Amino acid sequence: MEQRCQGVQYSVFECPLDEETLTGLMENPWVKVLNLSEDSLRAYPLTRTTKKQAKIYGSPPLYESPDYLIF
């Protein structure tokens, strides 16, 4: 995540991904190492409208054209 995304908070990243890239990441074997009773990986699609409605206080600013937020 740190190589491909902008860190927003501890374990919160903003990533510009298309649907195909996101699907590929979710099918990647590293996802299997998640302890789903303690961890979660969430991807939220952002539309042009919701990106414009984002309210950000402090830094960093909204990542360049994110398509998904990954938690």
What distinguishing features does this structure have?
2 helices
Overview of this structure, please?
It is globular and about 35 Å long. Strands 1-2-4-3 form a four-stranded antiparallel β-sheet, with no helix packed on it. Helices cover 20% and strands 20% of the residues. The chain has two helices and four strands. With 71 residues, it is α+β, with helices and mostly antiparallel strands. The longest helix has 8 residues. A hairpin with a 2-residue loop joins strand 1 and strand 2.
Q: Would you report the number of β strands?
A: 4
Rg: 13 Å
Contiguous low-pLDDT stretches (5 residues minimum) are none
- Major sheet summary line: 4 strands, antiparallel
Which percent range fits the helix content? Answer: 10-25%
Number of DSSP helical runs:
2
Q: Indicate the structural class.
A: alpha+beta
Molecular shape: globular
Q: What oligomeric state best describes the polypeptide chains here?
A: single chain
Query: Main sheet: which strands, in order across?
Result: 1-2-4-3
Please report which band the strand proportion falls in: under 5%, 5-15%, 15-25%, 25-35%, 35-45% or over 45%: 15-25%
State the order of secondary-structure elements, H for helix, E for strand.
EEHEHE
How would you summarize what this structure contains?
By secondary structure, this protein is an alpha+beta fold.
